[in-house]
Q: What sequence folds into this?
């Protein structure tokens, strides 16, 4: 159900007031995305896996409990990575479905193709 003109005007006024009162919040919200957050979290998880693996290998001959701690860190980090990759996948499916509903199958395929090209074809 579309908004009436009065509701649109009120919403626009609220947006303008928010921007005037807290520009920092507006910039932070508009610049962040699920992909950015989940990508950073995935990188943190990879670092956790490497730390856990290093602890596991170094402490294996010295202390079994500390070695087990490395395994627990590594396992927890792997679960954290999996959760964030799932978020990225869900967001991608949502974006694809939204594009498909708005513009049809050929346009959705072209948009996803261009998005992947933009991510993987970077000038070095």
A:
């Amino acid at each position: 159900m579309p908004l009436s003109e009065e509701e649109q005007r009120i919403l626009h006024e609220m947006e303008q007031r928010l921007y005037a009162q807290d520009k920092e919040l507006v910039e932070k919200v508009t610049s962040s995305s699920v992909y950015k957050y989940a990508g950073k979290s995935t990188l943190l998880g990879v670092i956790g896996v490497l730390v856990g693996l290093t602890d596991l290998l170094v402490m294996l001959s010295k202390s079994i409990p500390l070695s087990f701690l490395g395994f627990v860190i590594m396992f927890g980090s792997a679960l954290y990575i999996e959760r964030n990759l799932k978020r990225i996948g869900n967001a991608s499916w949502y974006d694809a479905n939204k594009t498909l509903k708005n513009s049809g199958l050929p346009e959705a395929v072209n948009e996803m193709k261009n998005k992947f090209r933009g991510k993987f074809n970077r000038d070095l």
Summary: The chain has a mean pLDDT of 79. The radius of gyration is 22 Å. Residues 64-103 form the longest helix (40 residues). Residues 11 and 76 are 43 Å apart (CA to CA).
